[in-house]
């Protein structure tokens, strides 16, 4: 396991089609079964998303990702942000958020968070707001 003091070299780059298998492995490890089970839809979402970046280690292994939508001027919505468990707490999630926002610097960031990830976003001065969700397959 890596510690926060360990030197970790990562690169953040645009998503490529051959990254999808690694992304699905991360999703499965996280228990995001809906994304894994609906693989075709998930892959199409990646292909259609203007915000689609991966973080990889020095061995070019995908260790995290961010996917989202934006109008480029006002709003940026983060659909998913995931860092593999061994790499959490090392600032990779923050780097992915910063990288995505640097591509669309005039936008505000919006996202939904789980109870377990709230502290991550609060640490970086995100504030909670009220919203709704409906999944039409439910």
From TrEMBL:
N-acetyltransferase domain location: 10-138
InterPro entries: Acyl_CoA_acyltransferase (IPR016181), GNAT_dom (IPR000182)
PROSITE patterns named in the record: GNAT
A single MF term (Gene Ontology): acyltransferase activity, transferring groups other than amino-acyl groups
One Pfam family, short name: Acetyltransf_7
Gene3D superfamilies named in the record: 3.40.630.30
Record flagged with keyword DNA-binding: no
Listed CDD domains: NAT_SF (cd04301)
Keyword line: Transferase
Protein name as it appears in the record: GNAT family N-acetyltransferase
Organism for this UniProt entry: Planococcus maritimus
